Amino acid sequence: WILIFVTAVLVGGSLAVLHKINPGNTSYTLHLSMLFVFGYLFQGVRTRPPTYASSQILIVVWWLFCLILVIAFCANYAAYRSSIALENLPNSLVTLLHQNYYKYSYIRGSNMGHLMSTPLDSVIYSLYQVINTRFKDMIPNSREEGIDEVIKGEFALLDESPFNDYNAKKYCLESSPSLWFGAYVFFMPKQLPYGAIIDEEIKTMGSDGTLDKIYKSEENIMISTLPTYCGATFKDQALEAMRIPLINWSDYSVEFSAAFGIFIVSLLGLLIVLIILLVEYRLDIYKKDTNE
């Protein structure tokens, strides 16, 4: 914004100087010089446009600068909207169910799919119905296939929480709270009497701390295999956000280097105006007619 302000002052000041050299019939102060092109376009101001080449080129430079500024603003606003969408969509089961940006699914034949098919929780069961009506062709056959879809973007994988946390950290992905907090599930293909025995064993393992030890052991093993670096700088987060086209925004934004390049281009335009001004001066274009 500092570069934009400096460029505006330079362009406006140059235009004011040009019209001070040759005022014509219209008074062009610095304020009028700055607002001339805007007023002419948006407010229908009927005033005499500059007639000299240097002034005309200066107007062209100003318009190109404004056009680049509008493009830069729109691109950065799109990046901002995408970043906000990443932070806020979805952050719960309800928002996942009622949004249209992400496709989602469980792994085919997984414990998660079996539990979601049981109508114990209305929201979870609604997710299961949506998956099997709208996204049934996208149900991954393996965890690796599901993670690949997540990395590509516009897809959320519903998986068991230990795997979910591990893969989220491994691939620098977002993870949400588990569907069932602290659940450790054994999947039985048939309802056999052994289910009750296993259920009692799990309760015993939970009460005596065995499950906590299993969780801690598995967590230590998984964490030890994670990469030592995950993008955490603002630039890394911005680039990561742009790789996930939630709402089909452009994946291009304008950084400081690009803004500085725009500033340099504007200065080159002003240099061309100065050269034309010197040529006009050498040709005595600004010399007043002594016969008037």
Q: Which key terms come to mind for this protein?
A:
292 residues, mainly alpha, D-Maltodextrin-Binding Protein, domain 2, two-stranded parallel sheet, 2 strands, Ionotropic_Glu_rcpt
Structural notes for this entry:
- This protein has 292 residues and is mainly alpha-helical.
- 61% of the residues lie in helices and 3% in strands.
- A two-stranded parallel ribbon has the order 1-2.
- α1 (2-21) crosses α2, α1 runs parallel beside α12 and α3 (53-88) runs antiparallel to α12.
- The two termini are 47 Å apart.
Any chance you could write out the topology, listing elements then pairs?
Layout lengths: L1 H20 L8 H13 L10 H36 L4 H6 L4 E4 L4 H6 L5 H13 L8 H10 L2 E4 L2 H10 L23 H14 L2 H15 L9 H9 L13 H27 L10
Parallel strand pairs: 1-2
Helix pairs in contact: 1-2, 1-3, 1-12, 3-12
GO molecular function: ligand-gated monoatomic ion channel activity
InterPro entries: Ionotropic_Glu_rcpt, Iontro_rcpt_C
Keywords: Glycoprotein, Ion channel, Ion transport, Ligand-gated ion channel, Membrane, Receptor, Signal, Transmembrane, Transmembrane helix, Transport
Main β-sheet description? 2 strands, parallel
SSE class: mainly alpha
CATH superfamily of the largest domain: Periplasmic binding protein-like II
CATH architecture of the largest domain: 3-Layer(aba) Sandwich
Strand order of the largest sheet: 1-2
What percentage of the residues does DSSP assign to strands (E)?
A: under 5%
Along the chain, the helix and strand elements come as HHHHEHHHEHHHHH
Give the uncertain stretches in residue-range form: 41-45, 181-192, 244-253
The shape is rod-shaped
Number of helices: 12
Output the radius of gyration: 32 Å
